């Protein structure tokens, strides 16, 4: 009869305990600890996954209040088109080609139905948000309603799944952006003092149309980020980026 081997029994028992512990810990692993391959999500509007930004349709309109029609800048298109191309490629790189912009520039300057003071009101502070809102309403009616005087099938047409943005280049003051529309004064494309970073300002206001919030304190004007939603808006676009804190709220 074999002699009872105490050390071997201990080794076998220890092995059983180890195997049991491994099985127990695997079964009780939380789902987020398991290796799951997550499919690439759609890029979406800031904090709103229901609005896809896979494809963005950007419509650009040079807009002049009717009392300023004499000051139409004949070179407006040459002034803005390079910045539009830069906006398009910056966006594509920042979102790793997962959010693509198709743009169209309306070929003619659009004269407003009203005078500058009607759009601007007496208060053009904080980027002239009143003009942005009033002009957006007017353009919606004139361009995108079949009864509008500028309704032209092709320019108004947007694929239903596209996220639509109107960008107003304004013959007036202002720099603002809200969901789906932005406004930037043509003066930023002309005045030499903005030449180093006009493309950054142009993208910054566009970023607001996709819900991205400012990264500076409204009261103190202290920047809380060096990205394009913060201090980066006054630095060259070539050095700009969108902070991960912002992108992670957009499914990126
Ligand atoms: Zn801003």
Percentage beta strand: 15-25%
User: What is the class in the CATH system?
Assistant: Alpha Beta
Q: What is the radius of gyration computed over CA atoms, rounded to a whole number of angstroms?
A: 27 Å
- Give a list of the ligands: zinc ion
Using DSSP, what is the number of strands? 8
> What is the overall silhouette?
elongated
CATH-defined fold name: Collagenase (Catalytic Domain)
Uncertain runs are: none
| Succession of helices and strands | HEEEHEEHHHEEEHHH
Structural class: alpha/beta
Q: What is the CATH architecture assignment?
A: 3-Layer(aba) Sandwich
Number of helices: 8
> How many domains in all?
1
Give the end-to-end Cα distance, rounded to a whole number of Å. Answer: 70 Å
Descriptive notes:
- By secondary structure, the chain is an alpha/beta fold.
- It has one domain: Collagenase (Catalytic Domain).
- The protein contains eight helices and eight strands.
- The strands form two sheets. Strands 3, 4, 5, 6, 7 and 8 form a six-stranded mixed beta sheet that branches.
- Strand 1 and strand 2 form a beta hairpin.
- Helix 2 packs across helix 7.
- The longest helix is centred in the N-terminal third of the chain and has 22 residues.
- It is elongated, with a radius of gyration of 27 Å.
- The mean pLDDT is 90.
- The structure holds zinc ion.
- The site of zinc ion has 3 residues, from helix 7.
Looking at this protein, list some descriptive labels:
252 residues, alpha/beta, Collagenase (Catalytic Domain), 6-stranded mixed β-sheet, two-stranded antiparallel ribbon, 8 helices, 8 strands, elongated, binds zinc ion
């Amino acid at each position: 009869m074999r002699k009872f081997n105490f050390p071997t029994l201990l080794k076998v028992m220890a092995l059983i305990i180890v195997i049991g512990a491994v099985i127990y810990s695997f079964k009780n692993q939380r789902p987020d600890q398991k290796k799951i391959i997550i499919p690439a999500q759609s890029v979406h509007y800031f904090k709103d996954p229901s609005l896809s930004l896979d494809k963005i349709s950007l419509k650009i309109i040079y807009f002049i209040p009717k009392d300023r029609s004499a000051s139409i800048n004949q070179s407006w298109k040459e002034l803005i088109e390079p910045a539009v191309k830069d906006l398009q490629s910056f966006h594509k790189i920042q979102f790793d080609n997962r959010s693509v912009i198709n743009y169209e520039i309306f070929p003619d300057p659009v004269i407003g139905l009203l005078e500058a003071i009607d759009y601007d009101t007496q208060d053009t502070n904080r980027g002239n948000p009143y003009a942005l809102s009033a002009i957006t309403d007017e353009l919606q009616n004139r361009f995108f309603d079949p009864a509008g005087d500028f309704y032209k099938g092709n320019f108004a047409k947007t694929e239903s799944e596209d996220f639509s943005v109107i960008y107003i280049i304004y013959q007036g003051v202002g720099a603002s952006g809200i969901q789906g529309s932005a406004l930037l004064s043509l003066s930023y494309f002309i005045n030499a003092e903005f030449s180093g970073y006009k493309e950054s300002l142009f993208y910054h206001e566009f970023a607001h149309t996709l819900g991205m919030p400012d990264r500076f304190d409204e009261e103190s004007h202290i920047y809380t980020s060096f990205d394009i939603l913060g201090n980066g808006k006054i630095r060259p676009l070539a050095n700009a980026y969108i902070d991960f804190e912002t992108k992670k709220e957009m499914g990126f």
